[in-house]
Amino acid sequence: MTKINVVAILSSILIFSINVYAEPLTNQNVQGTWTLEYTKKSEKSEELLPREDTWVFNDNGTVTIKNIPREGTYYDQLPVNYEVESDKLKVAILGRSGKFDTFSVINKDEKNMTLKARFGDIYQFIKK
User: What is the value of pTM for the model shown?
Assistant: First the structure.
């Protein structure tokens, strides 16, 4: 029984230490090319939906989503504006002036970024 308690305590410390040292999201550290590795419906979901698109965040405040699969081919979305506000990423919705998709940061370091969309979907990125 004590082994279980020790494992639980060490796991809790590890989880909290990861969150404490996660980078805050800023315009500067989000810039670059990020490959969307997978999405899933929630943090607890085990079903991963593999993705192939690449998000390119530019220093001029725009993001271009490239290599989006559709009906056996790929296309690139036109650039849209993005901004980082209160550790949340706001990406403009193409064709809907003044509307944004909002993402909360779950985890962010130099090579990985995990975002949570407004309705709970998880987006796992790897920096290229």
Answer: 0.78
Residue 120 and residue 128: Cα distance in Å, rounded? Answer: 25
Backbone angles phi, psi at 27, to 5 degrees: -60, -35
Q: Which long-range contacts (CB under 8 A, 24 or more apart) does 68-72 make?
A: none
Look-up of token digits 């989000």: 30
Confidence of residue 97 (pLDDT cuts 50, 70, 90): confident
Task: Please provide the distance, in angstroms rounded to a whole number, between the alpha carbons at the two ends of the chain.
Answer: 44
Q: Where are the beta strands (DSSP E) in 22-67?
A: 32-40, 49-50, 54-57, 62-66
The DSSP secondary-structure symbol of 121 reads -
